[in-house]
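Weekly sync, protein design subgroup
Attendees: M.S., D.O., the rotation student, P.L. (late)

Item 1: inverse folding check
M.S. brought a backbone from last month's batch and wanted to see whether the design step gives back something sensible before we order anything. D.O. pointed out we never logged the input encoding, so this time it goes straight into the notes. Structure tokens as presented (414 positions):
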């Protein structure tokens, strides 16, 4: 089978690497791909949102399966178009993807179907939104309603921070024209639960924990994720059962009831609060960097899993029981402004998986070309061993303009 992966980051590199282990896969294309993906797949210079071109490429090259990585392609309606052309695609329709692309839609769906989440109000007017924050308690969580590349969420601890964020989102249209969801602030450990979903059928992956803040100790601004790990000691079987039944299955059923059945990966960003597990956010695709630590644990043939879910069959999924931990190396200055083009040394010496997020090749060497540049993932029988190994392997990578967190996974030991 020929397979097309749509996307360019570390998540797509992990998907390509997992597909390369399948005996069913004859050839992998990735559009547009990146410098690291090019070692395993043939990279095609087509943007993720160029739906017509991607569809034509799949048809002309007899692609048997297309797997969608990023949310922007889903919002562009890639799944709808491929299905209309009779092409097999793994990813939800534009309508179902609203669970991610519209925070307001997601919150109203949760409210309607009694899916546990933070109390909220939605605003399109700056003055009304600021008055609401002033009348409430701090911290407050402000979320831009549309897509914002993981940067449209602000936890405002002061009125000044709230005011600045509301100006960005409602007056200056920093992320585009949109509304703002203001939520109550919840506390507790966060975790990510990704599930393969087709309609009412929901199949969980191992839970993972992402680290959103830029610096050690959860300091600094929110990012797209600075590292992740699996094997979460603070989440037990009862927690997972509740999350599956009260949240993930109920959400899949709700989308069917709303006439937007979901097919693909439903990502639950969840929090274990003193009042129980609640939803922080939903994504309509594999998480990043969680995918990079979850997919290496899949024992089954991922191509079969993708095809079974896309075709409405029950997949057979087995997982390895080792732990994984990944540390992201990011350009200094990220998630704000940063420079590109710095040479990266030592990647080939790493004993583990290196998934490229934002790299390019110049004069035969890898150079930085994005905010998050790569993630080093190590596996071991225990989480502590995986953490120690990942720290040692990251140290082998040399670059004048990269930084990383040194406390990924520490929360598991508190």
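Designed sequence read out in the meeting:
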């Amino acid at each position: 089978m020929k397979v097309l992966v749509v996307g360019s980051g570390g998540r797509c590199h992990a998907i390509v690497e997992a597909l390369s282990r399948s005996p069913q896969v004859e050839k992998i294309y990735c559009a547009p791909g990146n410098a690291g993906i090019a070692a395993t797949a043939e990279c095609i210079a087509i943007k993720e949102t160029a739906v017509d071109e991607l569809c034509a490429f799949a048809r002309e090259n007899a692609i048997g399966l297309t797997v969608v990585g990023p949310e922007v392609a889903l919002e562009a309606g890639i799944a709808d178009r491929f299905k209309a052309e009779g092409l097999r695609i793994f990813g939800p329709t534009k309508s179902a993807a609203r669970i991610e692309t519209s925070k307001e839609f997601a919150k109203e769906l949760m409210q309607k179907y009694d899916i546990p989440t933070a109390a909220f109000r939605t605003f399109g007017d700056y003055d009304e939104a600021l008055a609401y924050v002033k009348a409430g308690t701090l911290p407050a969580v402000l979320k831009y309603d549309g897509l914002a590349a993981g940067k449209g969420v602000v936890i405002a601890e002061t009125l000044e921070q709230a005011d600045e964020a509301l100006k960005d989102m409602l007056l200056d249209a920093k992320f585009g024209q949109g509304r703002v969801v203001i939520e109550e602030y919840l506390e507790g450990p966060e975790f990510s639960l990704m599930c393969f979903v087709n309609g009412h059928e929901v199949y969980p992956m191992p839970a993972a924990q992402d680290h959103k803040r830029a610096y050690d100790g959860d300091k600094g601004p929110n990012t797209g994720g600075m590292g992740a790990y699996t094997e979460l000691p603070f989440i037990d079987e009862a927690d997972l059962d509740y999350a599956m039944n009260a949240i993930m299955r109920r959400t899949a059923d709700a989308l069917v009831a709303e006439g937007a059945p979901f097919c693909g990966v439903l990502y639950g960003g969840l929090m274990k609060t003193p009042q129980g597990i609640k939803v922080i956010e939903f994504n309509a695709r594999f998480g990043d960097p969680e995918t990079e630590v979850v997919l290496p644990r899949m024992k089954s043939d991922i191509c079969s899993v993708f095809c079974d879910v896309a075709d409405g069959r029950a997949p057979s999924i087995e997982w390895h029981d080792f732990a994984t931990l990944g540390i992201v190396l990011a350009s200094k200055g990220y998630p704000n402004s940063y420079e590109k083009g710095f040479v990266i040394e030592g990647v080939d010496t790493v004993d583990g998986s290196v998934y490229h997020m934002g790299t390019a090749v110049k004069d035969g060497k890898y150079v930085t070309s994005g905010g998050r540049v790569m993630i080093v993932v190590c596996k071991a029988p225990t989480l502590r061993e995986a953490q120690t190994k990942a720290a040692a392997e990251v140290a082998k990578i040399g670059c004048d303009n990269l930084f990383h967190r040194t406390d990924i996974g520490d929360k598991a030991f508190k």
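Discussion: The CA atoms of residues 330 and 372 lie 4 Å apart. The chain is about 30% helix and 30% strand.
Action: P.L. to compare against the previous round before Friday.
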